């Protein structure tokens, strides 16, 4: 071990200049610092992971969470916070989520903010992993949480550069690996041989049997100042990857909720005699689940329905329209949407890679909302068939609460159906 001694000599004049205290001694103080340079380990982690994109680019990073090799579609999310809700959103199945906010993990993990019982995403990509947590609800840190859930994460990677690439080229398939035995060529081949388009991802995230949901939004988190409805409505919610806060918001508005699997027959749903049916959010390509489209077809027109995200896209297809894959999708809690009926602008929470083409919809279907970033369809209504739908997430988990009134609109639609008289115009209900 090599050592070096450094000697430092100071006088009071060196420290205080001309303002040295009076009557001070000119005695010189001498001390030495002995430094050593050994072969010990560095106090920081070296890069031990690779993210390889299908365009051939290789991004070195540091791993946290689980180890191994995973393939998925890389998308970026512009939310400033809410990473735990994002991790547990089933709509991210098959995807790596890149957070554009550079600092992630500072609030740790708690069990109140989970949107499902599992983490369905393929991996998490961030710029900087917080080395400490500070939140009164925190029970563990992000790294330990991902390890327990067997989810891979990487940090110390240029997320800004990757985001710019995704914005220019569109969403890309990537392979994330901590396995040094795999060559870059092998990982590149994996990225080129896998595709998320045309894959049924809904069946892997849906519940396996029906169940009743009763939990409401907790009093301390309730943000709606309006009084709850007097009537109770029975809603059958199709679980295509449903988030817990969607169910909590419906329950808070007075609904009795029966959650059913994605493959639940329409005939069995109608036997329950519901006041309304919710088609939930979910992952992947709506064209890859024709059985779900058929279910929607057999329910619309019989009871009021509300579609959210995937449910919105399935309604579009069931009505005879088409959906298309967007360049890089909408993922974040800050997307501006205009309500075309009222002119009101909502800041919305969004997570989808597909959209409904309004030009393919039949006469009578009304586009009610548009995304102001790209003018894509963000909401539909078909009064004659008792349909309302939104492309985004009105429960706002994570995100702002601007769109919560959509649940009340669904309540009013069911209330009107119960009390309707022949030939009434359902269109009047949509301007709540």
UniProtKB/TrEMBL annotation:
UniProt keyword Cytoplasm present: no
Alphabetic keyword roster: Amino-acid biosynthesis, Arginine biosynthesis, ATP-binding, Glutamine amidotransferase, Ligase, Nucleotide-binding, Pyrimidine biosynthesis
UniProt pathway: Amino-acid biosynthesis; L-arginine biosynthesis; carbamoyl phosphate from bicarbonate: step 1/1; Pyrimidine metabolism; UMP biosynthesis via de novo pathway; (S)-dihydroorotate from bicarbonate: step 1/3
SUPFAM superfamilies, alphabetized: Carbamoyl phosphate synthetase, small subunit N-terminal domain, Class I glutamine amidotransferase-like
GO biological process: 'de novo' pyrimidine nucleobase biosynthetic process; glutamine metabolic process; L-arginine biosynthetic process; pyrimidine nucleotide biosynthetic process
SMART domains in the cross-refs: CPSase_sm_chain
SUBUNIT field: Heterodimer composed of 2 chains; the small (or glutamine) chain promotes the hydrolysis of glutamine to ammonia, which is used by the large (or ammonia) chain to synthesize carbamoyl phosphate.
Name of the gene encoding the protein in the UniProt record: CPSs1
Keyword Transport: no
MF terms in GO: ATP binding; carbamoyl-phosphate synthase (glutamine-hydrolyzing) activity; glutaminase activity
Organism per entry: Medicago truncatula (Barrel medic)
Identification of the protein by name: Carbamoyl phosphate synthase small chain, chloroplastic
Family classification: Belongs to the CarA family.
Reactions listed under catalytic activity: L-glutamine + H2O = L-glutamate + NH4(+)
Every Carbamoyl-phosphate synthase small subunit N-terminal domain range: 47-177
HAMAP family hit by this protein: CPSase_S_chain
Annotated InterPro entries: CarbamoylP_synth_ssu, CarbamoylP_synth_ssu_N, CarbP_synth_ssu_N_sf, Class_I_gatase-like, CPSase_GATase1, GATASE
Enzyme Commission number, as recorded: 6.3.5.5
Pfam families assigned to the protein according to its UniProt record, in alphabetical order: CPSase_sm_chain, GATase
Functional note: Small subunit of the arginine-specific carbamoyl phosphate synthase (CPSase). CPSase catalyzes the formation of carbamoyl phosphate from the ammonia moiety of glutamine, carbonate, and phosphate donated by ATP, the first step of the arginine biosynthetic pathway. The small subunit (glutamine amidotransferase) binds and cleaves glutamine to supply the large subunit with the substrate ammonia.
């Amino acid at each position: 071990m090599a050592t070096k001694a450094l000697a430092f000599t100071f006088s009071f004049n060196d420290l205080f200049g001309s303002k040295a205290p009076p009557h001070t001694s000119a005695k010189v103080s001498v001390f030495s610092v002995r430094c050593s340079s050994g072969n010990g380990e560095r106090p920081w982690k070296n890069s031990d992971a690779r993210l390889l994109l299908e365009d051939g680019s290789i991004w070195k990073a540091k791993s946290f969470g689980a180890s191994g090799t995973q393939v998925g579609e890389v998308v970026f999310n512009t939310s400033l916070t809410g990473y735990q809700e994002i991790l547990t959103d089933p709509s991210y199945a098959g995807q790596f989520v890149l957070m554009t906010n550079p600092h992630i993990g500072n609030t740790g993990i708690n069990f109140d903010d989970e949107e499902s019982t599992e983490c369905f995403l393929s991996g998490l990509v961030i710029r900087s992993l917080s080395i400490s947590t500070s939140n009164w609800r925190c029970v563990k840190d992000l790294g330990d949480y991902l390890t327990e859930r067997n989810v891979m994460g990487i940090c110390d990677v240029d997320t800004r550069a990757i985001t710019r690439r995704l914005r220019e080229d569109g969403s890309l398939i990537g392979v994330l690996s901590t396995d040094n035995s795999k060559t870059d060529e092998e990982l590149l081949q994996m990225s080129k041989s896998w595709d998320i388009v045309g894959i049924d991802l809904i069946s892997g995230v849906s519940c396996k049997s029906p169940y009743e949901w009763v939990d409401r939004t907790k009093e301390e988190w309730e943000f709606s100042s309006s009084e709850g409805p007097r009537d109770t409505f029975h809603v059958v919610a199709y679980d295509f990857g449903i988030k817990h806060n969607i169910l909590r918001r419906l329950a808070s508005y007075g609904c009795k909720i029966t959650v059913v699997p994605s493959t639940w027959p329409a005939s069995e749903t109608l036997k329950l005699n519901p006041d309304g049916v919710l088609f939930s959010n979910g992952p992947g390509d709506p064209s890859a689940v024709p059985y779900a489209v058929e279910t929607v077809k057999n329910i619309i027109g019989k009871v009021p329905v509300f579609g959210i995200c995937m449910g919105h896209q399935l309604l579009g297809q069931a009505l005879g329209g088409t959906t298309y894959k967007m360049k890089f999708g909408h993922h974040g809690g800050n997307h501006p949407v205009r309500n075309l009926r009222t002119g009101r602008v909502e800041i919305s929470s969004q997570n989808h890679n597909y959209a409904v083409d309004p030009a393919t919809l039949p006469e009578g279907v009304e586009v009610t909302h548009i995304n102001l970033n790209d003018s894509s369809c963000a909401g539909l209504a078909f009064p004659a068939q008792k349909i309302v739908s939104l492309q985004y997430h009105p429960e706002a988990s994570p995100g702002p609460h601007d769109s919560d009134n959509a649940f009340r609109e669904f309540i009013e639609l069911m209330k009107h159906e119960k009390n309707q008289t022949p030939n009434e115009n359902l269109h009047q209900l949509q301007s709540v």
